[in-house]
Amino acid sequence: MSLLDKWNALGDKVVGAEVELILKPIGRTLKDAAIYVGHVLTDYMPEIGAGIVVVCAVGIMFTGNVPKWLARMAIGLGVAIIWLVNA
């Protein structure tokens, strides 16, 4: 085994250790954070849907533009319902 092969093997060990020591914990942390955010959104989705209804009702009262606010409410509630059904 030549000197360059030994040097290359050492470099491979260093890079492998960096991946194990630095990148894998960062990836696990980001994955756990995304899962946590998903759980929090699922837990609060009924309140989010109710908030959408209240905001749209206030919008209807202040503007009088019923079709625009009903469409926004339908989309918001549709997303909330689909989220909860698939959870």
Molecular structure report:
- The chain is 94% helix and 0% strand.
- By secondary structure, the protein is mainly α.
- It has one domain.
- Helix 1 packs across helix 2.
- It is rod-shaped and about 80 Å long.
Topology of helices and strands:
Blueprint: H1 3-63, H2 66-86
Helix pairs in contact: 1-2
Instruction: State the major sheet.
Output: none
Oligomer: single chain
% residues in beta strands? under 5%
Work out the number of β strands. Answer: 0
Q: What number of structural domains do the residues give?
A: 1
Q: State the low-pLDDT regions, or none.
A: none
What is the approximate shape?
A: rod-shaped
Give the rounded overall mean pLDDT: 88
Radius of gyration (Å): 26 Å
Number of helices: 2
Order of helices and strands: HH
- SS-derived structural category: mainly alpha
> Helix amount, in percent?
over 70%
Distance between the termini: 57 Å
Give a concise summary.
With 87 residues, the chain is mostly helical. It has helices at 3-63, 66-86.
Keywords:
single chain, 87 residues, mainly alpha, 0% strand
